[in-house]
Amino acid sequence: MPLLLLVALFVVVPLAELYLIIQVGQTIGALPTIAILLADSVVGSLLLRSQGRSVWRRFNAALGTGRVPHREILDGVLVIFGGALLLTPGFLTDVFGLALLFPPTRAIARSGLVRVAGRRIVGGVVGDPGPVGPRPRSPYDVDGTAREAPPRPPRLP
Q1: 139 exposed, middle or buried (CB, 10 Å; 0-12, 13-18, 19+)?
Q2: Spatial separation of the C-alpha atoms in residues 127 and 115, rounded to whole Å
Q3: Model pLDDT for residues 40-69, shown as the tens digit of each residue
Q4: CA torsion 127→132→138→143, rounded to 10°?
Q5: What is the pTM of this model?
Q6: What is the pLDDT of residues 79-97, one digit of tens each?
């Protein structure tokens, strides 16, 4: 599954972006298409800045009230990801980037992400495997002898 996701991310998405850019360029012309791509990057960076500040204020307010800011942290991650998508040239990534920067659609993405992560966490580890595997069922019983080593003379540095 992760390999399929990487193929989609690095092959399918750029091809779809190129197709859309070519189609828009053929419809409205090359210069207007380039102007739209530049304008949405500028607007996206301004929107990223304002939404980032808003999330930062809510994060600090949550810390000030003594509440764990888990929602604000996730919002911050989604805002950064949305801003990165907006700064990437292309129409498809811009749609998803804008969706992550607007609070109502970001809330939908956040709830979906929490639901998926919750399923993975619940379906993950059952029990306590410890640092290197399952704990032994009974204490170790080892027969052995010990001897004391003679002291070494001090060495000069």
Answers
A1: exposed
A2: 22
A3: 889 888 988 999 899 999 999 999 998 888
A4: 180
A5: 0.69
A6: 999 999 988 889 999 999 9
Burial 123-135 (b: 16+ CB within 10 A, else e): eeeeeeeeeeeee
The average confidence (pLDDT) of the chain is: 85
Rounded CA gap, 116 and 83, in Å?
A: 22
CB contact set of 60 (below 8 Å; sequence gap of 6+): none
Please give the C-alpha separations between residue 151 and each of 30, 129, 148, in angstroms, as whole numbers. 83, 40, 9
In order, the DSSP letters of the chain are -HHHHHHIIIIIHHHHHHHHHHHHHHHH-HHHHHHHHHHHHHHHHHHHHHHHHHHHHHHHHHHHTT---HHHHHHHHHHHHHHHHHHSSSHHHHHHHHHHHSHHHHHHHHHHHHHHHHHHHHTS--S--TTTSPPPSS---------PPPPPPP---
